[in-house]
Amino acid sequence: MSPVRTSINPLDLPEIRAIVGRHLDRPDLTRCLRVCKSWHDSFSPFVWCTVSAKPGQPYPTVDVFRRHNELIKNLTCHSDMWQEYMDVFCPNLLSLDISVLPDQPPIPIAQYDHLRSLRISGQRFRCSFYPVWKTSHRLDSLSRLELSVVDIEPKDVASFWTLCTQLEVLLVYSTHLPDLPDKSIKFERLQELGVSLRSGQTFVHQLDWFEQCPNLLILDWNACSEPEPGPELIEDFAARLAAGAWPKLYDLNIPNFHALDAQLAKVIEGMPQMKEFGAIECQFGPLSFTALRPQFRMLRRLDIAFSDTPTGPMIPEILASCPQLEYLCADDVMSEDIIDSEPWVCGQTLKALYVRFCITARRHQQDVFKKISQLPRLESLVFFGLYREAGSKGMEFRLGAGLEHLTTLKELKELSLFDAGDYLRASDVEHP
């Protein structure tokens, strides 16, 4: 008896559809819902896993939202109707991003005992969220908290800091944050910290707080409040680094501190595991560059834009010496430095390049574009802040001037010109 042969379409198997669904975007997923009932059942969890309700957005309606509440795991609610959405209980909610106004009803987050991530942003006015902190002790699973334009008031302080002891990620932006009520509080779990305070803690008190976070991996510390920090602050930070306050720190961003070259060098030397570094509006000079060289093999991100010292001569060496580099943001670089540079070893890793190219001779135009074309993984290419130095010009973004070489950048999603002083013709933009 000959064996029976059957022909099975792999997509008839729910296990296969579950795998396929992970790789489809939302428009394709919604098309899959319309194929048949079995497909609708398989792909609905992917469509409704993440839901966004924003002002002026007609969909989803509250009724539709209610019908799919058990499938919703990630909810962004920036809508005037947020109270109506929040009245619908989503038992499997893991992430909540909500924007609210003062004097609105309390946010009923205490019922979401599985919530892992919470983002609260004040809208149009600065908000205090005492009802949130009053019930926050019930959020045992919460590991990530982000606050934007939210003030922590005196009556909230104890509850807020108690909640922070269980967090792994804490981001506070444009926020009023009082001092720690108890200097002995430790934040052993905290691994990522982003701080940009409007008022409250002084910079020194912020450093004291950071030192209570011994397991930090990532620190984004922005100096945006008044008065501006003095030079002794970065000296203090570097000394604490050298003393081993944050032995695991590998990602540091310290924009707007106006740190001097020697100070930045000490900071870099205090981070032997550095993989990512940002120092916008600081003096990244030869001492900092020398201190950074031992980290080149591991460096993934470097942002030294708006430096008080020229960084252009450093850029070719960085591109030629950092095999894991994914992101580079710097200032002006002369075309001859790029053309004469060693081969770029980051060709298979670099995804974002933000620079100012100064063309000292028009014949360099083609060669610069050819160099850029050797970065096949590039997704974002931004030419910004061009200014005319004596004998230099901006790049000419036209076919025939080298723009056609960028057709090798198959993954390019963003090509931006800021203050380039040049123009693109319609035919250049439309060229495939």
Structural class: alpha/beta
| Coarse morphology | globular
Largest sheet: 15 strands, parallel
The average pLDDT score comes to 82
Radius of gyration over alpha carbons? 26 Å
Helix share of residues? 25-40%
End-to-end distance, in Å? 58 Å
| Unreliable sequence segments | 385-391
The share of residues in extended strands comes to 15-25%
Q: How many strands appear in the DSSP assignment? A: 17
Number of helices: 15
Strand order of the largest sheet: 1-2-3-4-6-8-9-10-11-12-13-14-15-16-17
Can you describe this structure in just a few lines?
The chain is of the alpha/beta class and 432 residues long.
Can you describe this structure?
This protein is of the alpha/beta class and 432 residues long. The chain has a domain at 311-432. Helix content is 27%, strand content 20%. The chain is built from 15 helices and 17 strands. It has helices at 14-21, 26-33, 37-49, 62-67, 82-86, 130-135, 157-164, 203-210, 231-242, 261-269, 286-292, 314-321, 335-339, 364-372, 426-430, and strands spanning 50-53, 74-77, 95-100, 117-122, 127-128, 144-148, 150-151, 169-177, 192-200, 218-221, 251-253, 276-278, 301-303, 327-334, 352-358, 380-384, 414-418. A 15-stranded parallel β-sheet has the order 1-2-3-4-6-8-9-10-11-12-13-14-15-16-17. The longest helix has 13 residues, at 37-49. It is globular, with a radius of gyration of 26 Å. The termini are far apart. 30% of the residues are buried.
